[in-house]
Every structure is written in C-alpha cells, then in structure tokens.
Amino acid sequence: MNIKQVRYVCAIMDLGSFSAAAAREGVSVQAVSKAIAELESSLDGPLFERRSAGVTPTPLGRAFATRACRVLDEWEALERFASAPGVTSASAPLHMGFCCPVYPGVERLVKLISTVTGKVLDRQVDVEMLRCSDALDALHSGRCAALITIGPIEADDVACGALGTVSSDVLVPQDHPLAAKSEVTIDELADYPVLYPCDFEHYCHAVVDEYLKRGLRSEVVKLSMGDPVPESVTDGSCYSFIFVGNITGAPEGHVIRPLAKGDALPVPICLSSLRRPGGIDFVSFRRALSRLSLFG
C-alpha cells in the first residue's frame, strides 16, 4: 500500500469515476486502474464495482475510504508543513492576487476565495484585487505569493494551471431588451455592444475573445480605467459577460441572464506562482480545492 493508492481511492469516492479521479490527480486512467487493482489484490477484495455509468464502492471500499481520507488529510497537512518549514497558521498572512474587473458584489467572491484558500493552505490568506497589467510585477516583487486569474498567465518563470471552470453569463441593465428573456443566445447578443475592460486582459482573452472566436458578432467597446465612458455604456445598451454571478449577484440596476445551452463557454480559473522552491504545490492545492467545490 502507498499514498498514491490512498489518494486515488479518495478521489474516486469524491468524483464517482476513475477518469475524473485521474484528471484531478494529473495521471492517466490506466495508472489509476492499475494502482487500484494492486491495492484490491493486497486487500483480497474489490473496493469498487465498475459500471458503465461510473463506479460504486463496495462495503470494503466504503470502510477503507473512510480511513483513507482521514489519513490523506493528515498526509497533506504534513506535506504543507514540510514544504514551508517553520510556517504555521500563526505566521504572517499569505498574500494572493486576484485579477478580476471590479464591480459591486465581487467582494463576496474575494472573501470566499480568501476563506477557501486559507482552509486549503491551513494559513491566513489575504486576497488583493489586481489589474492584469500589475499581476506579474506583484509576483516578481514578492507582493503576492500566487495569483488567481480568469484565464492563464504565460511567462517562462511562472507555473500556471487550471483550478477548474465556472459558468459565464450576461450582465445587462434592468431596462435592456435582453433583460426580459430567461436566457440569451450569441445571435441575440449581436445587436448590442459588449464591454471589453482592457486592464483585465486575462479576463478578456479567456471570455470575450473566446466568444468572438465562437461567432459572437457584437461591437466591442474597449475601455480602460480613467477613460471617458462611451455613450453605449451610459445609455444602457452595452452588456458585459460575468462569471460566478450566483456568488456575486448583479449590481444594482442590473440583471444576470444565462447564455443558452450550447452557446455558454466554461471560464477557466487559474492559479499561478513563480517557479521556485517553496512555491505553492499546485497539484495538492487543486486536489484540496476540488473537494471544497468552489470551482467545477
């Protein structure tokens, strides 16, 4: 028996399939199947019943998983301690940056990220909202130990990986013609301009640009902080894409409408840190975060 087998058992119990467990652990399905088969052989009994719709734990599997998940929690706590000797929850807070356009209600998401990452890292975490243009400087200067971004950061000295995805919806004023709809399509959006916040290029590339590639025909209204507000924004005809609206809610005077099934794109949420000893262990972070169900 080894800790990888324990990890795989817990992942399968959490996610209900070998393939989902393999994706979370960053290994092949064959590697998970082989490890579980070897574990079952050593235990003289099956842990899971394999079915076309997924897997179901056997009585032995449930009993083993109950103990295995407790062991895994302790093991991961030990890994965190070993990767940062001398660091305890009483140490100075860990600073993380969150690159996201500022809008009313987003502070609820910032608080949630701080709470969840604090649980994952067993340490107080302070989250600072940053413009994308300031993100790499914040990492290189040590102002932030890690960044959470909408979409990936590409730099030679930065390790970046996807934590998961969230839904993308449309934010419109209450008196906007699309506000009366229960959901909207990309074709219906074509008649209205879309806001493009230039200071948040990770968001724009991962969301607006991806919809444009998918056939969105809306006029793009580019706006940077400090720029005069275009008439299309002030007259209420402009819309924006929004993510995790179920957490942040809509700003006053606005409503959130989902995109029609087939048109909606999942938005990648990424974690980035510098490639250096003592950095955040992305695989362990993603594994723990997935169990807390913040991102899909």
How does the SSE layout of this entry go?
Elements: H1 3-15, H2 18-25, H3 29-43, E1 48-51, E2 54-57, H4 59-83, E3 94-99, H5 106-121, E4 125-130, H6 132-140, E5 146-150, E6 158-166, E7 168-173, H7 186-189, E8 194-197, H8 201-213, E9 220-223, H9 231-234, E10 240-243, H10 245-248, E11 254-258, E12 267-274, H11 282-292
Parallel strand pairs: 3-4, 3-5, 8-9
Antiparallel strand pairs: 1-2, 5-12, 6-12, 7-10, 7-11
Helix pairs in contact: 1-2, 1-3, 1-4, 2-3, 5-11
Question: Briefly, what is this?
Answer:
This protein has 296 residues and is of the alpha/beta class. It has eleven helices and twelve strands.
Terminus-to-terminus distance: 30 Å
Shape call:
globular
Arithmetic mean of pLDDT: 83
The major β-sheet equals:
5 strands, mixed
Helix content: 40-55%
**Share of residues in strands:** 15-25%
Low-pLDDT segments, ≥5 res:
85-90
- How many strands appear in the DSSP assignment? 12
How much is the radius of gyration in Å? 22 Å
Helix/strand/pairing class, anyone?
A: alpha/beta
Q: Could you give the order of strands across the largest sheet?
A: 4-3-5-12-6
Number of helices: 11
Q: What is the H/E order?
A: HHHEEHEHEHEEEHEHEHEHEEH
Description:
Helices cover 41% and strands 22% of the residues. It has helices spanning 3-15, 18-25, 29-43, 59-83, 106-121, 132-140, 186-189, 201-213, 231-234, 245-248, 282-292, and strands at residues 48-51, 54-57, 94-99, 125-130, 146-150, 158-166, 168-173, 194-197, 220-223, 240-243, 254-258, 267-274. The protein is an alpha/beta fold. It starts with a helix and ends with a helix. The protein has 11 helices and 12 strands. The chain is globular.
